[in-house]
Amino acid sequence: MTYLRGLRWYILGLIFTVTCINLVDRCSVGLLFTRFGMQLGITEQQYSLACAILLLAYTVSQSVFGYIFDRFGSRVGYSISITLWCVAAMAHSLIVGLGSFILCSFFLGFGEAGNWPGAAKVIAEWFPERERAFGMAVFNAGSSVGGVLGPLIVAGWLGPILGWRLTFLVIGSLGFVWLFAWLRTYHPVRIHPRLSPSETSHIVGDIAVMNGGMVTPSFRTLLSFRKTWAILSARFFVDPVWWFYMLWLPLYLRDVHRLNLQQIGFMQWLPYFCAALGSLTGGWLSGRLIKSGQTVNAARKTVIGVGACLMPIGIFAAHISSPKTAVALISIVLFGFQMWISNVQTLPSDCFPATAVGSVAGLGGSAAGMSSLLFNLGAGWMVTHYGYDLVLTMSGILAPVGGAVLLILIGRIEQVAIPVEAQT
After folding, report:
1. Which of 289, 326, 317 is nearest to 305 (CA)?
2. Sequence-distant (≥ 6) Cβ neighbours of residue 39 within 8 angstroms
3. What confidence category does residue 206 fall into, taking pLDDT thresholds of 50, 70 and 90?
4. CB–CB of 132/203 below 8 Å?
5. What is the pLDDT of residues 326-363, one digit of tens each?
6. How is the chain split into domains, by residue range?
7. Is the pLDDT of residue 211 over 80?
8. Is the distance from CB of 423 to CB of 216 less than 8 angstroms?
9. What number of helices (H) and strands (E) belong to the chain?
10. Cβ proximity of 392 and 256 under 8 Å
11. Theoretical Cys-Cys bridge with 217: which of 64, 171, 188, 221, CB 3.0 to 4.6 Å?
12. How does the average pLDDT of the chain come out, rounded?
């Protein structure tokens, strides 16, 4: 079999694509709720409950899938994750009320969550340290591009033509096409038959963590490090910003600015397009700073700080009457968030060996899911009683708080030493 030049970029392309599909599936729920919610008699307060159930599943699943990816590998991990979330996405076409909506939301969240620790592990395996932030940026840009495509495909095209039930079926089936390509393309670095020796050397370099004989450290061991708690705290404080806009932006545009489904679809793409630019900017800038001579520690902290400072601008959207101006401000928020997250999600591979990356990323995702669940429940209550002003203000405060906690706890960004006896 001949070698495939630049194979790691093909692998990254697949990760980017599955993340796009992940976000299109997730966006479709909020977008199509503007249709089926009233039809099935599901209120906004009940919608927030379904979103909370999705986030509960997401929270539990991140740690579960982090361990699965570390223990059984990315082929098995993605096969399970994709199958769960695609079946759940397609099952939304059969919902008849709140109970079935909640059930589908739970399994959608549980399956979709596996993509995040899985992608972090694959990128840590396939990219050297100097390219890793850019790899994470491309992966995270997939979520933003999915956020761009979701409104255009679901609200602007399929929804009005097919109706919400058939749209769920079509969107949910996309992941199975991806899974076929993944199983044909992906193998671990150390045994991939189409990976050339020169690219293997470029990927591995002098990274000792590529030792395939090393086993996965226990959660107890990982939680004994301050760096783990720094990553968990950062995700806990700041990820609710992304989830709030992901789940509530269509309803905000409908309720506050009186836009219909098609108008929402043609406006909601802009924040996610800016988010994609933010992700690529964050990854590129971090890599650029490292190439210019800065340490990984300085480069990551610089970009994380800039991203955290951009997100509070969303507070002003609470006081804007123009939908175009509000969307422009929200676009800056999501640009900053993706600039921030593209570097924060690189921290597990910066600080821990390859056999722990999925687990640490999964723990971070669980912390993010837990806080997003609580914030989403609070958002439903705040929107019902006070409108959107209070919740937009609170989401703007979270980013600088999370950035400060991260910088205080993490110390110097560098690999930790895990004792052999602490591995299980």
Report:
1. 289
2. none
3. very low
4. no
5. 999 999 999 999 999 989 989 998 999 888 888 999 89
6. 7-422
7. no
8. yes
9. 16, 0
10. no
11. 221
12. 90
What is the rounded distance in angstroms from the CA atom of residue 247 to the CA atom of residue 250? 7
Residue 132: name the closest of 79, 64, 209, 198 by CA.
209
Residue 97, Cβ density class (10 Å: 0-12 exposed, 13-18 middle, ≥19 buried): exposed
Cα–Cα distance, 171 to 104 (Å, whole number)? 14
Half-sphere exposure in the Cβ direction for 234 (13 Å, CA)? 31
What is the rounded CA–CA span in Å between residue 154 and residue 265? 8
Residue for token digits 């929270």? 59
Strand partners, 423: 217
Read out DSSP for 288-342? Answer: HHHHTT--HHHHHHHHHHHHHHHGGGGGGGGG---HHHHHHHHHHHHHHHHHHHH
Q: Which residue from 339, 239, 333, 331 is spatially nearest to 280, judged by alpha carbons?
A: 339
Q: In this structure, what DSSP letter does residue 217 have?
A: B
**Using one digit for the tens of pLDDT, what is the confidence trace for 383-396?**
888 889 999 999 99
- What is residue 114's three-state secondary structure? coil
Alpha carbon of residue 302 to chain centroid: 21
Q: Look at residues 399, 401, 395, 404 and name the one whose alpha carbon lies nearest to residue 314.
A: 395
So what's the pLDDT on residue 373? Answer: 86
Q: Distance between CA atoms of 296 and 291, rounded to whole angstroms?
A: 10
What does residue 355 show for φ and ψ, rounded to 5 degrees?
-75, -5
Tokens of 212: 């395939």
**pLDDT(277) > 60:** yes
319 falls in which pLDDT band (50, 70, 90)?
A: confident
Three-state DSSP at 415 gives coil
Q: What are phi and psi of 423, to 5 degrees?
A: -90, 140
pLDDT tens figures, 150-164: 888 998 899 999 999
Please state which architecture CATH assigns to domain 7-422: Up-down Bundle (1.20)
* Residues facing 217 on adjacent strands: 423
- pTM for the whole thing? 0.79
